Amino acid sequence: MSLANIVQGGWEAVGAGDFDTLVADYLEEMAFIMPGQADVLEGRQAFRSALDGLGEILPPGFEITGLRQIEGEGEVVSIVEWKSDKVAGSQLSVLFKFEGDKIYEERWFVDTEQWKSAF
C-alpha cells in the first residue's frame, strides 16, 4: 500500500468517526503539531484522546470540500480544501512523515489569522 493510500484511509476514518482505526497508522512515539497552538501533542495515546474533542477544535460548520495527496520519499502532503460557517472556502496543508508504513509526525500548515476568524 502506498503512503498516500495510508493517509487517504486516515482521512476516511476521520470522516467516519473511526479514530481507533486512524491511530493504528501512527507510531507510539508520534507528534502532532498545529500552528497557533502552544502545545505539541506527543504520543499516540495523547493524540487519540484529543480526537474525542475534535468538534471543539474545528471551526463551526467545518467541512472538507476537496482532498488530494502528494507523496514524496517517506512523506505525504495532504492539500485540504475546506469551508466553515464564517469562511466560504480556503485551503490548508498537512505534512505526514513516515517511518516505514507508520506516521511519526503530523504537522498542519494553516493561515492562522483566517483560522481564528472562522470561530
Automatic annotation (TrEMBL):
Residue ranges occupied by any SnoaL-like domain in the UniProt entry: 11-105
Q: What is this protein called?
A: Nuclear transport factor 2 family protein
Q: Which domain of life is it from?
A: Bacteria
